[in-house]
Design a protein that fits this description.
Elements: E1 3-6, E2 11-12, E3 17-20, E4 23-29, E5 32-37, E6 42-46, H1 49-70, H2 73-79, E7 83-84, E8 93-94, H3 98-104, H4 106-114, E9 119-121, E10 124-127
Parallel strand pairs: 1-9
Antiparallel strand pairs: 1-4, 2-3, 3-10, 4-5, 5-6, 7-8
Helix pairs in contact: 3-4
Length: about 130
């Protein structure tokens, strides 16, 4: 059983965080549940949806901690195809389109073409 997650959100300058809307997919492969975020090229896995989501949240936290600590946060987002806006009044970052992700990310294309999806919504906060 597979599902697609759309994460909704907004930009808040006062809280120094960005809450974004991202496409996420959950699918099962070889008896393992996987949650994958193509816009961040991150995944988590487990024996069920709950374990996979917990694993994904750990991956996401480690990604933020590492890139912020190393000073590569915005460069990593640019590498992943995000548009990083310089003006503070506009949205500071825009994720790549689904078309771009499908064209540029072979792993996402493989999963997208071989698994069925269902949608669910969840917010992700990205440090600003």
């Amino acid at each position: 059983m597979s599902r697609e997650c759309v994460i909704k959100g907004s930009w808040s300058n006062n809280d120094d965080k960005i809450v974004v809307k991202l496409q996420m997919i959950e699918f099962e492969e070889n008896g393992v549940t996987i949650i994958y975020c193509p816009a961040l090229d991150l995944s988590g896995y487990g024996n069920n949806s709950k374990e996979a989501e917990e694993s994904f949240n750990i991956s996401l936290s480690e990604f933020f901690l590492y890139t912020l600590h190393k000073g590569t946060f915005y460069n990593e987002f640019k590498r992943l195809g995000w548009k990083v806006h310089e003006k503070k009044k506009s949205k500071p970052m825009t994720p790549p389109s689904m078309e771009s992700l499908l064209r540029e990310n072979a792993n996402f294309s493989r999963v997208f073409e071989n698994y069925d999806f269902r949608k669910f919504k969840k917010g992700i906060s990205i440090p600003a």
